[in-house]
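Handout, section 4.2: multi-component inputs.
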Amino acid sequence: MALNQKQRSAAILDAVRRAARQEQFLEVVSAAEARRRFEACVDRSPLPPQSLPLAAALSRALAADVIAPVDAPPFDRSNVDGFALRAADTVGASDSAPKRLLLNAEVIACGVRPAIEVMPGTATAIATGGVIPRGADAVVMIEQTELIEGGPAIDLRRPAASGQLISYAGSDIARGETLLRRGTQVGSREVGMLAACGFAAIDVVRRPHVAVLSTGDELVEPGQPLRPGGVYDSNGAIIAAAIVEAGGDPVSFGAFPDEEVALELAMRSALDACDIVVLSGGTSKGAGDLSHRIVSRLGKPGILVHGVALKPGKPLCLAMIGDKPLIVLPGFPTSAIFTFHAFVAPLIRARAGLPPEAARTVTARVPVRIASELGREEFVLVSLVAGEDGLIAFPSGKGSGAVTAFSQADGFLAIDALASALDADSSAEVTLIGETERAPDLVIMGSHDVALDVVVGALAERGFSARTIAVGSLGGVHAASRGECDVAPVHLVDPATGIYNKHLLAPGLALVPGWRRMQGFVFRRGDERFEGRSADGALKVALADASILMVNRNAGSGTRVLVDGLLCGARPPGYANQPRSHNAVAAAIAQKRADWGVAIEPAARMYGLGFLPIAPEHYDFLLVKARCERPAVQAFLEALRDEKTRARVRALGMEPAHQPSI
Ligand code: AMP
Ligand code: MG
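Output:
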């Protein structure tokens, strides 16, 4: 039915009102209360067993104790190539009085059943792994005997001890013993033990099937081109992978637009097909929210919790539909994966028969103040570096919308709901996430640049690992002056002199030149207002036309100082738009959210934009002198001087500085 103009504007107004309405959560509960309610309803017992061939059982939990059905070794076995004999026959053997034993007419190879009993005064040749014959109680190595051709016989010049060089039946695995306990995760060693007992298959706990769904009109499947306003569905991928890590079997349903009918249908079939359903997105109450609406009509008992006093993760929704848990995670990637690990991963492990993951914690000093919201327990992702006297934890500057915050963090710390901040220099308990890697050889904190990746790559080729923590130039200066990093990349101009970075030098710090990055006036190719002009000329045009929109940079950045210098006090439209990176400036111009800005040439190039050079910016490195002698720091300086590295830096559009020898 075609809508008339009036109906159309009424519909738009309606949508705007809906979007603007910030519905309150019905009841926000504490994380502990949320967990209590969830655990009270959810069956956490291991799923029924299934029998799998050993190779397929890898990483599964054993469904029951495994009792050894056989002895290993199954018989008394020789450990060496030599002779089986009676120890009593060798008593007193010496160089001056060797003992002679006649050889029996048999050679016991592996897999052969001995036929002749070893009688007093005799011995039988036996191979490593051969069955000890009746009568024998010791083995001597072939190297310690002399063959006497005539007998044939052997001479021994040393006595043998009873039991020597024999592995007795059942000494490795005794029939009837509990070989492996239920719940043990099957690894290669367990596979070996099971095979040694003759198992071809074993009962393991069935993996829970966990449905993964994403919702959001903006979501695009990885592999497809990104449309304007679109973002890739990263939650679907990371949650599926985290399900595998927790011992589950993910069933990916894909990403759905925020469309109630289709999403409800998908959720119903997910509930039918799987043991657990995990949906991400559409959970914040208010605009565009629909997940909880759908969940509330899927079945009893329904929603247990919607809204947890937790940051990140407030809009988390926990529900039970019949006997199946259904969890709606917040859409923001860091919130999603954080709440997944807090609420879903333990449930998957339990149902997969695996023991709870032991929390590994370390104590670290937090050098900076971290503000926190009152009333919500706040979790802060941190990077750990080794300081002079213990570990130092730096909060990740990235918000809960970031995909990388969780992946790049070493752990997290919790700030109590009743605290409004964690003071600088507090000591905090950090819960580690993922595998603990060894501490990096070099810690780089400051401004990030694509060419820095080239130097870090050159360091890796030299066998040194580096940890880069992007905290901006000023953050790098602070970290270096506190001695918390080895190297701080900086690019700050002294407004008084126009000279880069020298004014940042302080006692204990040295400055090493890095490279020059050309800053310029950036615009869309083909924009006739700017095309063919100099940067100066383009700027004059931009300032003369109020319909032309600029994009600025954040205060504290070197580029902002440059922009303010160019504007001489002018405040053109768009001045208040102040993103924090060269890439963001280029993206705003490419996507026509702005018409011009100032950024470095590589960023303009990457977005296919026009570039009019203004002035080179100096990207240099502050070194902490006390750490200069470290091999990794020396390797870093060497990499900077290396012609191969310099060529790669040049290829990215930077001009490497002349390197004074240090
Ligand atoms: P929502 O919970 O739907 O309000 O989403 C909050 C934010 O998370 C939005 O910026 C979404 O674009 C983003 N988001 C939601 N789902 C996903 C997803 N599957 N992958 C990546 N980002 C997502
Ligand atoms: Mg959404």
